[in-house]
Amino acid sequence: MVKFADRILKIPDDPLNEIMKLSSDRDVISFSLGSPSKEAYPTQFIINATNKLLTEDPVSILSYGLQEGYVPLRKNFIEHIAKKRNINAKLENVLITTGATQGIELVSQTFIQDGDVVLVESPTFFAALPVFKKYGATVIPVKMDYEGIDLNDLETKLKKYNPKLLYIIPTFQNPTGISLSKERRIDICELADKYKTVILEDDPYYDLRFIGEPVLPIKSFDKYDNVIYLSSFSKILAPGLRVGVIVANKEIVEKLVLAKSGADTNTSLLSQGICSEFLESGFYESHLTEIFPLYLNRLNKMVDCIEQFFPENIQMIKPEGGLFIWLGLPNKIDTQALLQISSQKYKVSYVPGSIFFINQSECKNYIRLNFSSNDESTIELGMKRLSMVFKDYISGLSF
Amino acid sequence: MVKFADRILKIPDDPLNEIMKLSSDRDVISFSLGSPSKEAYPTQFIINATNKLLTEDPVSILSYGLQEGYVPLRKNFIEHIAKKRNINAKLENVLITTGATQGIELVSQTFIQDGDVVLVESPTFFAALPVFKKYGATVIPVKMDYEGIDLNDLETKLKKYNPKLLYIIPTFQNPTGISLSKERRIDICELADKYKTVILEDDPYYDLRFIGEPVLPIKSFDKYDNVIYLSSFSKILAPGLRVGVIVANKEIVEKLVLAKSGADTNTSLLSQGICSEFLESGFYESHLTEIFPLYLNRLNKMVDCIEQFFPENIQMIKPEGGLFIWLGLPNKIDTQALLQISSQKYKVSYVPGSIFFINQSECKNYIRLNFSSNDESTIELGMKRLSMVFKDYISGLSF
């Protein structure tokens, strides 16, 4: 009886919901999340920051705020994040969002209309796809290799589809963990300018580099002022606070603010204040220093387990940072089909590779593994279980 | 060069931005806001609640949460709010939003497509209008009288336009302060069912009744399960936390959750946790008891000032609660045109009536005055200034 809008009928059920349900059993070791380590949450810092904010200036924190975001946070983002990434930004270029998720939503509302094309890396962050589609986009995948998005395929598709947006996660990409080379970052700016496509750079993992030298964001090479940059506090501080940041040219930010106004007026000021304190106090940097050994040990542990317990004919890209390992299993394995038995019988869960593709029949033998949320002994136990899922399947014992 | 989507080009500049700018001078007494009293923020309670939440279960508060919202808050909302308002709701009927603003946004995404009609009271909450239009709606006004929306005009327009939604603020309506009678609330359910229109009931002021007997929400008479109910913590606890609530039938909530997922994944869990504690601790009730005399005194003070300082040929509806007084001045006064000089020369600001109308040439002689945000002596000073603005104008001295 209820007549819903077409746009909402385009959204399939969230695949993560099913995975989360399968992981909710406390005995299941979950490698499914994209969260920081629970042990790494700086709880006492957040308590202290809250007390300080609400003692010093409760009215600013508890009243309505500017749609663009809390001014101290925007200033601290420019000073402590943007500058270090060689991103040139004034206050008018910075908009605070309710998580980077809202960044994707607001950009989609502001740019996409029926018939527009959005190019994405293949594979890509699955949760962005229904948002692009909700606003009428056709999503076209672009090939990747070990250095990130393939520029030949990108140019072919820029030429062919005249896309409105290129959505890209250049650093420790979700799900592959691959980082785009500097040369390609520079070339992408040229290509996007040539074909008049706006780049939506999603960069939540930038500061989670444990190995090797940082490569600056695409936005830092953005001489055409054509990149919309998304940052997030969810992967370093805490996702529950829901704070992200957009940096873009003034004309774009002004339009995004109109969308933000209707979306939720402003992001929680308590959350924004905590993030601002996190940067201003210098705790951001010391927190990174503290979590790096923890994360690197977990990454190394998971890589060791893969090498030790898994067959040799697997494909693994060992990332230099981020939260995920992308693992290719023998071709005959359908990881989507095995997820239920993996969770329910073997008590270990992962995200099946196919959900990161537009054409979900691709890479059915891949899985995305989060290495940050479990301690090393749990990683070892979980990876043993996981290796058994696939060994048993291959040897045909249990199925 | 940048090609924005048509939907974002439909949004005019936010009229409140201009008003806020004019009110930002510290010498200006602002009657423009829709906020609780700053003195009434329960700051110490919020500090204590934060400490408790982050000490007892930091992982639940700092990690990603359910899209539907924090379970304790949804349970407490049912127990402490919905039941008292005679609203029948299970967990599956309750979705937490990032302020009630997001409620309007999610409902619009989920229901409205190009060509749909949304009926609204005339006048109505101006910030809802661009959201309906962004998603393709034609907005049609329905007349009001002193008992709220006019049922004859409503039925005429239900018949004529076959609208998708009826957006209505039945209790202490924004901007008029009028409350819809019980009889009309019951009849509206029948009419909406007869014409197959969904009712979007926006009810942020329900508990701000200082005088008279409560009238239950339309949702409490919703035997056809056809009302989407929006509630908010912004007007009682603190707008800066950004927490609202939707109550609707399961089928609708499931679709709204798909929109919520893309919009911001989940509402700030710290904000949700604070609201949950606010209800569970019983502090909600005692806070209401504490703020009522404060608000009633301010309301009475503003009414006294109007009677004392303003000419006799004005129209005032004295509300029994809420945050606003709606004031009709002599016909020749254009309150929009006078706002700048009022703010800059007389140092007092208000919201001009015309922005609450679809046709902004209506009721140019009206203003909306907030009585909650200033103390009584400031109200007296501000109202004296305001009366001078209009007296000077009428006597032709200053213009």
From TrEMBL, chains A, B:
Swiss-Prot/TrEMBL keywords: Aminotransferase, Pyridoxal phosphate, Transferase
CC cofactor: pyridoxal 5'-phosphate
All residue ranges annotated as the Aminotransferase class I/classII large domain in the record: 27-385
InterPro entries per UniProt: Aminotransferase_I/II_large, Class-I_PLP-dep_aminotransf, PyrdxlP-dep_Trfase, PyrdxlP-dep_Trfase_major, PyrdxlP-dep_Trfase_small
Superkingdom: Bacteria
GO MF: pyridoxal phosphate binding; transaminase activity
GO BP term, example: alpha-amino acid metabolic process
Subunit structure: Homodimer.
UniProt record similarity statement: Belongs to the class-I pyridoxal-phosphate-dependent aminotransferase family.
Name of the protein this chain belongs to: PLP-dependent aminotransferase family protein
Record organism: Soehngenia longivitae
